[in-house]
Amino acid sequence: MLNTKTVRVGSNVLIGSGHPIVVQTMCNTHTSDVDATVAQCRRLAAAGSQLIRITVPSMKDVPCLEEISHRLRSEGIDTPLVADIHFSPEIAMAVVPIVEKIRINPGNFHPDHQKARELFRKFIEKCKEYDRAIRIGLNHGSLGKYIIDKYGNTPEAMALAAFEWVQMCREASFHNVVVSLKASNTVVMVEAYRRLAAMMQESGVVYPLHVGVTEAGNGDSGRIKSCVAISTLLSEGIGNTIRVSLTEDPANEIPVARYLADRYSDLGSSHPFGVRDDNVIPSEASVSQMDERMTYILKAACDWGAPLLNHEIDDIPIEDEYLKDEILQACRRRFYKPEYIACPGCGRTLYDLENTFNRVKERTSHFKNIVIAVMGCIVNGPGEMADADYGYVGEGFGKVTLYRKKDPVLRHIPEDEAVDKLVELISSDSVSRLGD
Length: 436
Ligand code: SF4
Prior knowledge:
The chain has helices at residues 34-47, 62-74, 89-95, 113-130, 145-151, 155-171, 186-203, 219-235, 253-265, 292-309, 321-330, 353-364, 381-384, 415-435; strands spanning 7-9, 13-15, 22-26, 51-55, 81-85, 101-104, 133-139, 177-182, 210-211, 241-242, 339-342, 371-375, 390-396, 399-404, 407-414. It is globular. The protein is built from 14 helices and 15 strands. Helix 7 packs parallel to helix 8 (219-235), helix 8 packs across helix 10 (292-309) and helix 12 (353-364) packs parallel to helix 14. The protein has two domains: 7-274 and 288-293, Dihydropteroate synthase-like (TIM Barrel, Alpha-Beta Barrel); 337-436, Sulfite Reductase Hemoprotein, domain 1 (2-Layer Sandwich), CATH 3.30.413. The chain has 436 residues and is α/β, with parallel strands linked by helices. The structure holds iron/sulfur cluster (SF4). Iron/sulfur cluster binds next to helix 13.
């Protein structure tokens, strides 16, 4: 493992510097539905999530977050909570007294870059005052305009954008910082983390890294995509906390993340400080929650992910053709079906994302060489779709917008017609391409 700073979240979770890899997930309930969110947190904590993230989309959700935290603590559940903040430095400031960790996205902290820097410094001071941890959480799809104009939408841009914010923390002598650079494209994601790790090492101060593939999708494909990329980085000692994002019940993410954490935490024994075992992992957390077939799939994804992503091999010697196709596609070495991107959903999602995603997959599996995104909300969805060719984005209130690349081409379509319209759109584009 990289020799990183130690980040303490609440009183019981330590991230980095030889501590075992920390497993985390995020609620997909509406934060304003306090009962549902408390119930989901209870389940996620019991399943083995060592940190639980909750979205805070508006100021109205701040008192709900406080109530959720209060109820969990009064039940004796002390899993640290992480507030997920986009587009609002005011909400970021407001949640500091309430939760143990705050994730902000530099790409949307404030539209004006200088103003964003100024507000971030104030935010850091408040986090110091309350002894909080933060995550600087960049995503490939939501880099700030100023950085894209300078460096393009590249892994280098992602690493440089994060490094700038890391340096601000360092200048303010605030070191309770974790950094992430997620992308749905596994090649981009691996390269971005490698670059940032190298930059931090060169600078002499390395903050722990939260590693994950964003919008990985669901089922075997989502698990395999996460495993090939996360395992590649963990095998190089890059990564101290992980999330396996799936467009499913977030509890399903835990056994996969646990598998990865267990497989790679041992690497810490070669670390100068060794692996330390002061993070308490709930006893229910176990890879035994997975069946034999799933363990076989995850193992194959981890075994073959790095050599494929690193172009050390071009094929894999396994007879299971389906698994071979899935792993090769996850590593972007061969595309046997459309590439699907789907966010995991969160408190901003206003429709049945998982079922819709499955319907889109069923109806579009015959198309080749295209990227299709299914996103939970119109606020972050369009930005986070990154390089998708087509996007299905829930607007809320039973309506959907369909995108071609970055352009909304059909707006306010009733949900029950939207999958048909998406298929029509892709089909008519395919016919016109044939005519070109
Ligand atoms: S894109 Fe998905 S995960 Fe991201 S904020 Fe919207 S609903 Fe939540």
